[in-house]
Amino acid sequence: MQSLILYNIGMDELTIGELTARGYYLGSNVSYNVKKMVENGYLAQERSQHDRRSTRVRLTTKGQALRSKLEVMFNRQADSLEGTGLRVGDVETLNGTLRRLEGFWSGNLAYSTDQPVTSAA
Q1: Which tens digits make up the pLDDT trace of 4-20?
Q2: Do 94 and 30 contact (CB within 8 A), yes or no?
């Protein structure tokens, strides 16, 4: 999870909320993972100049080096799709579909009741 968070930060400087919205880290405690990456020197965390209540994170030199390695790995995996009949565009379409499905499920779970499902027969 931490490698995905690190990769998605890229060269940007983001708040935790922006990072969460960008990455869809379902079931992950982003704040905990960011804290661990700050402790290990991959991220720098600073108070926002405009809003002292929020903090912004960015990659350190160590984090940028790891992100470069991740990018090489991701590109190699994308290139290896060529021999499978799958194209990068197919995977991107599938990813978008899965995100919409996740949104549908999340929306329905938020409004669901605790009533058991019964058969209409």
Answers
A1: 899 989 999 988 888 88
A2: no
pLDDT tens digits along 15-54 = 888 888 777 676 678 889 999 999 999 999 998 777 778 8
CB-based contacts of 57, cutoff 8 Å, min separation 6: 9, 13, 14, 15, 16, 19, 34, 38, 43, 44, 45
Question: Roughly what angle, to the nearest 10 degrees, separates helices 30-39 and 2-9?
Answer: 80
CA pseudo-torsion sign 58, 62, 68, 73: negative
- Cα distance between residue 19 and residue 45, in whole Å: 13
Alpha helices in the chain (DSSP H): 2-9, 16-23, 30-39, 61-80, 88-110
